[in-house]
Write a structure and sequence with these properties.
With 441 residues, the chain is an alpha+beta fold. The protein has 12 helices and 12 strands. It binds zinc ion.
């Protein structure tokens, strides 16, 4: 197939796209949003074969088909219907990366949509943010954006964009962005509820329409266009997270890391490949929580907190939890492979103490354990409101809530907690219960 930057470059439909002139005398290939047939005319297996025949007969590219592909020899492979759009390349390294360019790149600094005037304050916010271990990397400044990995674009759009842009970005611009953020959140959940796909399609279409209105006709690149085909792919093939290139990228990185000498690159690559195969066979994978297991007893001796620090009322409630009345108060723990810390635990740049229990959010003050049961004593975070939704689909809100810290306490078994992201920016607390640990395991 033709590449995305040529006419008929979309593998899902027959929209040819348009070539637009750029300011520096170049061209860019765009796909304007077609209000009356946004998704079509669709390609399918039989049309693809007819196009392929025409291409072979004439020896020329026909409607984007450049020639046969070796995968066509597979008996049950339908290249059009069976090839999933890869969200890592299309959304994260395509749409989100381009948006960050519009917001922060100097060449757009005179545009209405630029956030350059806030660059320093946004960088300062990013430096302060402490993220839970389920986010693979701690946030880096915008200045290092050219080194960002796909997972950093994901973290930026899911966790940092709304807190950092609220009150900085123009209202129509942030409302437009919310459509994309909610769509990504829902489509990347551990269990995708397919009854929402119709509503997600409306959000994605609103996002596409708004794109040319806010960022101009040149912004309608192939990545933006491909969003229109996303929900159909999910219905027909499966979830975004089941078909993506993250694992191949990780594999490539591992491979390069293991090549030590540049002079014998070929031999190095073969040896690395063998080592990776062996290590995956032995299941030698680092725990995603990055925390080695220790015996429960050892922890307690090392992490005991003076019980005098416990508030009297809290102590009364805690005493009622344990029959023996003999328990330890500890600063962190690891239950079912998940690491939790507390407000008492200072030796980390991560924030693993913000949790959801039922419909409540909280910050873990400390843990109490009798080595059989472990409970978290939490400060309640009261949910103030969630302004991040499209008024056309008010039931589909972002996972990001604006919260207030209170003095009220609740106690919950650690095994029933869900970890959340806690983002503090410009004197406001944001909590997102979107957990992405399943995306990186
Ligand atoms: Zn298309």
């Amino acid at each position: 197939m033709k590449q995305f930057n040529g006419f008929f470059g979309c593998t899902k439909c027959y929209q040819p796209g348009e070539s637009l002139k750029t300011k520096n005398n170049g061209t860019v290939h765009v796909y304007p949003y077609k209000i009356y047939n946004a998704e079509g005319p669709l390609r399918d297996h039989s049309r693809y074969h007819k196009d392929l025949l025409k291409c072979l007969e004439s020896g020329n590219v026909f409607r984007g088909v450049m020639g046969p592909c070796i995968l066509n020899e597979l008996k049950y492979y339908y290249p059009i219907e069976g090839t999933m759009i890869d969200y890592m390349h299309t959304i994260l390294e395509g749409v989100v990366r381009k948006l960050t360019e519009y917001w922060f790149d100097e060449k757009f600094s005179r545009e209405n949509f630029s956030l350059r005037p806030y660059l320093t304050s946004i960088n300062n916010n990013l430096k302060e943010i402490r993220v839970p271990k389920f986010i693979p990397r701690v946030p880096r400044e915008i200045n290092s954006i050219k080194y960002w990995k796909a997972s950093e674009y994901l973290a930026f759009i899911l966790y940092y964009a709304l807190p950092l842009f609220r009150n900085r970005m123009k209202l129509n611009q942030i409302n437009h962005l919310i459509n994309l953020i909610i769509s990504i959140e829902y489509l990347l959940k551990k269990f995708v509820d397919k009854t929402f796909l119709g509503s997600i399609q409306i959000l994605l279409k609103d996002f596409m329409i708004g794109m040319s209105e806010i960022y101009g006709a040149h912004s309608m690149l192939s990545g933006i266009h491909e969003l229109v085909h996303l929900t159909r792919d999910i219905k027909n093939i499966g979830n975004l997270n089941d078909f993506n290139c993250f694992q191949f990228e990780n594999f490539n990185r591992e491979l390069l890391r293991l090549v030590k000498s540049k002079s014998s690159l070929g031999i190095g690559l073969i040896n690395s490949f063998e080592s990776i195969k062996l290590s995956s066979f032995l299941n030698f994978k680092e725990n995603s929580e990055g925390f080695s297991a220790k015996s429960q007893n050892k922890y307690n001796i090392k992490l005991n907190i003076n019980q005098n620090l416990i508030d009297k009322d809290e102590k009364k409630n805690i005493d009622a939890l344990f029959l023996s009345k003999s328990y330890s108060v500890i600063k962190y723990c690891k239950i079912n492979g998940i690491f939790y810390s507390s407000l008492f635990y200072k030796k980390t740049k991560r924030c693993d103490f913000c949790i959801e229990f039922g419909s409540k959010f909280g910050l873990i003050k400390y843990f109490v354990t009798d080595n059989i049961d472990t409970y978290a004593v939490c400060k309640t975070l009261s949910k103030l409101h969630n302004p991040f939704y499209n008024p056309r689909i008010p039931d589909l809100k972002s996972s990001m809530n604006i919260c207030l810290q209170t003095q009220s306490i609740f106690i919950a078994p650690v095994k029933d907690l869900e970890k959340c992201a806690f983002i503090e920016a410009n004197n406001t607390i944001y909590v997102s219960n979107m957990n992405v640990s399943h995306l990186f395991n």
